[in-house]
Amino acid sequence: xxxxxxxxxxxxxxxxxxxxTAAVIGAAAIALAxxxxxxxxxxxxxxxxxxxDCGSAETQAAIxxxxxxxxxxxxxxxxxxxxxxxxxxxxxxNRMQQLEECYGIKWEWSRQGALNDAHSGVEAVxxxxxxxxxxxxxxxxxxxxxxxxxxxxxxQGSAEGxxxxxxxxxxxxxxxxxxxxxxxxxxxxxxxxxxxxxQSGYIAGQYLAKLLKGEGQxxxxxxxxxxxxxxxxxxxxxxxxxxxPGMQIVGSADGGYVRDKGLTAAQDLLTKFPEISAIxxxxxxxxxxxxxxxxxxxxKHWDGSEGIITIGADGLIxxxxxxxxxxxxxxxxxxxxxxxITMIDTLFQHEVLGMSVAQFIRIPTTVVDKANVDWAEGLIxxxxxxxxxx
Length: 390
Description:
alpha/beta, 16% strand, six-stranded parallel sheet, 390 residues, 13 helices, Rossmann fold
């Protein structure tokens, strides 16, 4: 069994880091050093000495020359300061430190998240405007503010030399056809996340249908009414359940994307619908609240053949622990670790190496349950134990 207390920056994280680095080094080698290949036999790790993580000595020297000792000033604004966004940030910091050690790039990082109503997006507008006025080079934004509002701010900031990268966002709802506009109407360099329509709600619905063999009553705990994340996850979940005539969504309640409200919502739903087979929480905090409600009601958690199934979405260390303990059946891990890594890789490729990057980058997701919780938790725990700190 995986023990988080023994996690180190080597092992799983070292292998994961080297694998992810290949994307940067491979592209950079082609751009800067012709067909030079990475040589794993070169010893050393950083600072121009050459190393398997940094590329061959020739490639490392070329990229270091392109960096030219530059400092990049980055703003980071998640919709709320939560466990998930801390995991994203820590993974980004690990990648930043690796790139700094390899190529001499320097970073200034500023995090500002909403302190009050995260899902209105009101605070995000002022935060991003502050980053622009203070001359940041690039800003990572995940915001619940209206799409049109944010795009207007991005356009203004871009005119002043600030590049914007959305992450974990919901541009699927508003993005017009790229047939008429090659940028899809988006004033962002890249949009890094996953497809909410299919890789969260839909996959959760498929998983429930498989366990329940296409039969059973389900209740949903939704995010705030009007939230784009709520719309997309609900859309995918309901599409999956509709494929199974023997399954029925009998009730739903607003859990506000937080654990205590998820608990209250689940208690109400369990009272109204005592014969349910499963609870779907649109995010993991609400699903963990539902798990608490099952305990407080004296009901049985799913044991592989009977009980109430609970499934959420995010991929939190706390959720992984609950899966192992049998308190949460499963979660859709939307890959906070790879999201943070990809955010920095994409920024480095564009800002430093001058590459044209994909405007939409989709991170792989997976359903995590007892069968694969050890390695899924291990990747997150290793990232959280990594050395990056800014």
